[in-house]
Amino acid sequence: xxxxxxxxxxxxxxxxxxxxxxxxxxxxxxxxxxxxxxxxxxxxxxxxxxxxxxxxxxxxxxxxxxxxxxxxxxxxxxxxxxxxxxxxxxxxxxxxxxxxxxxxxxxxxxxxxxxxxxxxxxxxxxxxxxxxxxxxxxxxxxxxxxxxxxxxxxxxxxxxxxxxxxxxxxxxxxxxxxxxxxxxxxxxxxxxxxxxxxxxxxxxxxxxxxxxxxxxxxxxxxxxxxxxxxxxxxxxxxxxxxxxxxxxxxxxxxxxxxxxxxxxxxxxxxxxxxxxxxxxxxxxxxxxxxxxxxxxxxxxxxxxxx
Length: 306
Prior knowledge:
Layout: H1 3-16, H2 18-53, E1 58-62, H3 65-70, H4 81-93, E2 98-104, H5 106-117, E3 134-139, H6 145-152, E4 158-163, H7 164-207, H8 209-217, H9 222-257, H10 262-265, H11 274-303
Antiparallel strand pairs: 1-3, 1-4, 2-3
Helix pairs in contact: 1-9, 2-7, 2-9, 2-11, 7-9, 7-11, 9-11
Organism: Streptomyces colonosanans
Subunit structure: Forms a membrane-associated complex with FtsE.
Domain ABC3 transporter permease C-terminal: 185-304
């Protein structure tokens, strides 16, 4: 097959259906940009989980005098020194689960509260003796919170056992929901792109039915006749894939590193690096070529009788 003939036919087809070709390029670009963004979001959630789960603590809050009057869990009164020693001793025995135990006094809890919520109207009315003493426990495996909860919930002097991981789970659940929504939009855009590709191939095949009829008469093979149409779709898809890569790189550059500069404004978030972006680009480009080419191939089998 002469490459010059194929290239000339590709150029003719793209120019002849310029409006539909532009629509294909835009829809492929947007859908694959969403696809790449969804992959990066998945990586981001995984990175954040690894970063934050490694820092979460389980907190055992101890009863104070105020709790003894209002909280059913503290009906036996404020925690005693003997109870605190017993709780700490039991924690130190749980070496297979507990990595580190830190004690926070009422004064320390009050200081931390003032630092975090000093502007709150409630902060001015609180006193140190109203704060709760607590043990902050670093687990070797964050998934084993239930071991601590089972061992200390309901024990004398213990007001509650709280797991910070539960708060993070809600955040990650929201991020997964947003990622699923992006994947849904991406799937819709891909369907639109495929329909546009099929219609573009149909129009192109119909407009060149005379040429393809002559080629059949002179004995041209099916692949020889179909190749220009498939290549047209692949080229349009590749242009769209290239734009998707530009969108993805630009999005990472202007939102994380520069422009919005989220990496410097949100220091608590461990953003995925450029290596994660570069690894997605070949996949996007490969998809942008294969998806339109296969769509065109199957469309031609039905609409171009060869």
